[in-house]
């Protein structure tokens, strides 16, 4: 029996951002992802809604911002955040429509894969194992089965940057991103993350080959993306562009090849786009908007701005941002340190600590100001805060009003007071029960 709907395969990397050759990152070995971009559609200006793993993924898979879907912080361990009961994950939507829904590797948007709606959860592990599990599954899958939805989650290149199957490049040979100091700790981390990206690239290449050599090759949408920016200072856990920029590459039946789209895309836009591509209706109250027209042609109204947020990672640090083509406005709502750092020095924090020491940031600027305004045309790495510059006061205030209106339109509870994550509710219940 011929399938009536497209299959969907989505591969999502941890902490990758856009650090790939096809996005202009030097010294990165990503030939398979680059080749996939050359045969598909690469979105040059794709952003996530949050610079932390769980909130960004929850937004991707629900089409709704983290402050609305319930995942205001991490889902694992004692953080305990989870999707609100009424939230619909893409796997739930597709399963109800007759899809066979599989999870390979990690998910980080809910406390359990079952909550997301997956019928089958395959074991995790290094990306090469996850890819191998998928290849075996595709080889054994019968062609008369239901349409397939496969979410494939790689741990790589999350710290501590695993790369058992790839030798790292010499640290001294690598180019340093302009927003980082050239110090040994940064070079060592860049060497390790590059090797971890190369490992993920190999695994991704084998997944694409498995699909394209199978009997679903002509009937499958493949998406490659990431949850947020790389795990370096001024990137992950911040709302600067290196924290919210993500790779987004799509291959779809009937779509052109080797195209670069430069419209601003938010990861809340992915769910409505996939539903449009397979002809399914949208659930109510989505925040994202479909960009199907940028993939297979047709009408598309560009986003005038994209929005991003952070509420919790390792601690409470609420901030919201609006980004236009030229301007970025960040509103910081607590007096928190300029750069969040994990307490795990050896596995997660060494580079952050050493960068802080190297920059020797003066005490009076070690904490967030109320507002940050950046002219992205003149200052793409967001180094000069113009929020208090009288020349740009009108721009700042217009962006503040637009950001506040977005928060109101999407029912952001931060407008009404501090937000508690699930940890507080659980522990307060325990406290009152004694």
Please explain how this structure is put together.
This protein folds into two domains: 7-296, Alkaline Phosphatase, subunit A (3-Layer(aba) Sandwich); 306-426, Arylsulfatase, C-terminal domain. Helix content is 31%, strand content 17%. The protein is globular and about 65 Å long. With 434 residues, it is α/β, with parallel strands linked by helices. Helix 1 crosses helix 7 (184-212) and helix 6 (127-140) packs parallel to helix 7. The mean pLDDT is 95. The termini are far apart. The longest helix is centred in the middle third of the chain and has 29 residues, at 184-212. The chain has helices at residues 31-38, 53-62, 66-69, 90-96, 113-116, 127-140, 184-212, 241-244, 270-277, 293-296, 345-359, 393-409, 422-433, and strands spanning 7-13, 41-47, 100-105, 120-121, 148-153, 220-226, 248-251, 259-266, 306-312, 316-323, 327-332, 371-375. The strands form two sheets. Strands 4-3-5-1-6-7-2-8 form an eight-stranded mixed β-sheet, sandwiched between helices. Strands 9-10-11-12 form a four-stranded antiparallel β-sheet, with helices on one face.
The share of residues in helices is: 25-40%
Proportion of beta-strand residues: 15-25%
| Major β-sheet annotation | 8 strands, mixed
Mean pLDDT: 95
In the CATH scheme, the class of the largest domain would be Alpha Beta
Structural class, by secondary structure, is alpha/beta
Give me some keywords for this one.
12 strands, alpha/beta, 31% helix, eight-stranded mixed β-sheet, four-stranded antiparallel β-sheet, 434 residues, Alkaline Phosphatase, subunit A, Arylsulfatase, C-terminal domain
């Amino acid at each position: 029996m011929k399938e009536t709907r497209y299959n969907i395969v989505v591969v999502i990397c941890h902490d990758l951002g856009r650090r790939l050759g096809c996005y202009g990152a030097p010294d990165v070995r990503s030939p398979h992802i680059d080749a996939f971009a050359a045969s598909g559609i690469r979105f040059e200006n794709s952003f996530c809604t949050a610079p932390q793993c769980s909130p960004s993924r929850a937004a991707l898979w629900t089409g709704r911002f983290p402050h609305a879907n319930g995942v205001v912080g991490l889902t694992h361990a004692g953080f305990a955040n989870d999707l609100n009961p009424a939230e619909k994950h893409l796997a739930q939507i597709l399963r109800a429509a007759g899809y066979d829904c599989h999870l390979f590797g990690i998910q980080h948007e809910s406390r359990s894969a079952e909550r997301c709606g997956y019928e089958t959860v395959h074991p995790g592990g290094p990306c090469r194992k996850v890819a191998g599990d998928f290849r075996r599954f595709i080889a054994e899958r019968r062609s008369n089965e239901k349409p397939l939805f496969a979410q494939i989650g790689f741990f790589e290149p999350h710290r501590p940057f695993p790369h058992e199957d790839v030798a790292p490049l010499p640290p001294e040979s690598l180019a340093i991103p302009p927003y980082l100091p050239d110090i040994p700790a940064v070079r060592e981390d860049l060497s390790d993350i590059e090797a971890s990206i190369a490992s993920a690239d190999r695994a991704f290449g084998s997944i694409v080959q498995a699909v394209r050599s199978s009997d679903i090759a002509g009937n499958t949408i493949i998406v490659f993306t990431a949850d947020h920016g790389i795990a370096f200072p001024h990137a992950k856990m911040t709302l600067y562009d290196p924290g919210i920029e993500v790779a987004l590459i799509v291959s779809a039946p009937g779509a052109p090849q080797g195209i670069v789209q430069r419209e601003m895309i938010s990861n809340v836009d992915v769910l409505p786009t996939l539903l449009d591509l397979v002809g399914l209706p949208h659930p109510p109250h989505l925040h994202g908007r479909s960009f199907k027209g940028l993939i297979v042609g047709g009408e598309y109204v560009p986003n005038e701005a994209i929005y991003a947020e952070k509420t919790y990672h390792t601690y409470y640090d609420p901030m919201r941002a609006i980004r236009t083509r030229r301007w970025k406005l960040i509103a910081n709502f607590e007096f928190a340190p300029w750069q969040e750092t994990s307490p795990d020095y050896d596995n997660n924090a060494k580079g952050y600590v050493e960068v802080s020491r190297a920059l020797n940031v003066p005490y009076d600027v070690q904490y967030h100001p109320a507002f940050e305004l950046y002219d992205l045309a003149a200052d793409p790495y967001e180094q000069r805060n113009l929020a208090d510059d009288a020349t740009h006061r009108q721009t700042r205030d217009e962006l503040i009003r637009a950001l506040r209106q977005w928060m109101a339109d999407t029912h952001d509870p931060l407008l009404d007071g501090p937000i508690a994550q699930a940890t507080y509710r659980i522990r307060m219940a325990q406290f009152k029960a004694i």
